[in-house]
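Hi there,

I know you've been waiting on this one. I reran it after we fixed the sequence typo, so this is the corrected version. Both the input and the resulting structure follow.
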Amino acid sequence: MSFLPAIRQLTLTSYRNYQHLVIDLQTRPVVLTGHNGAGKSNVLEALSLLTPGRGLRQAKLNEISCVSQPTRGWVVSAAVENNGGVNTVGTSYEADKSQRRVIRINENTKRDHSALLDLFSMIWLTPHMDSLFLESSSERRRFFDRLVYAHYPSHADYLTEYQNLMRERLRVLQDHGHQHPWLNGLEQQMAEHAVAIASARRQHLKELSPFFLDDPLFPIAHIEIIGDVEHALQDAPALKVEEGLQNIWAQQRQHDYYSGMTNTGPHRSDFIVHNKLSGLTAIQSSTGEQKILLLSILIAQANWQKNNQGSAPILLLDEVAAHLDPARRDRLFNHLINLESQFWLTGTDSDSFDGLRDLAQFFLIEKGLVKTSNL
């Protein structure tokens, strides 16, 4: 059975605990096992950097270089097979040059990182994300906005430009006062971007809802956006909401000046998740139930992409099996297999993955070395 899209070869150079690593792969699921600290999560992080953004750890570029060669920079490259054939994808950082991450697709440098989404996409779950519902709203926004990228690749650009416009507005307020004519134009552009961001979030969550599993072991998550802009769009057309935002920001200039931040906008929105089976919010649920809700959301997202884009994303699930009882673990494996795209799992105990023994390719990681466990 082939799982596409799939990573067929992964090469890491001067990357964290790997001076040089090449893994040849088949179009099957991948299981990485090994002791804590062996480098399993580093492999998943490297894969996540083959998508737009800063990867699953949100690490700074200069923090990723191999510990033995911290000034050299690093390189991640992969051969990715999809229905359209095999493409080579790479990303690199050279510490002594531009200080920027370079993206290459089939040896051609791409300035627009969203071009990666034309080939494949990835979504992931890490142990750090277990506390997503307890963290600040910024973490939840980042998580859900990444889901929206698959629907609207331009969403990332709108978010970046909106942040730039907010910074520019605050700079004008601080340097030139509350009546400077530039502020009207900046606030107009901010409003256009804000409404585009909020509209994309609302539309994607609406379309995502039917793709949750009908499975009592993976309960349906009801996702609600709490935000002024998103709420306003329920009752008014986009142009009216833009006008309202411009009026609010004009009235809040003095307040924003003294607080040093823009106090209204989609950058303040939050996402509240309810377990539709129990009726509890995620924050009221146990740690295990929160994990299941996150998995339910990711699988729904993957099924939405499969239905709407022809293939599911590659899933990266770090240390996920250890937190599930055997019944949920086996059910999770079945749901992942049904997506028909390659998925990567890590864990310390290979026995946790016995349900995949005849299907997946297993690798043992020890002190930065990767050995085939069984094929």
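Quick highlight: The mean pLDDT is 93.

Best,
R. S.
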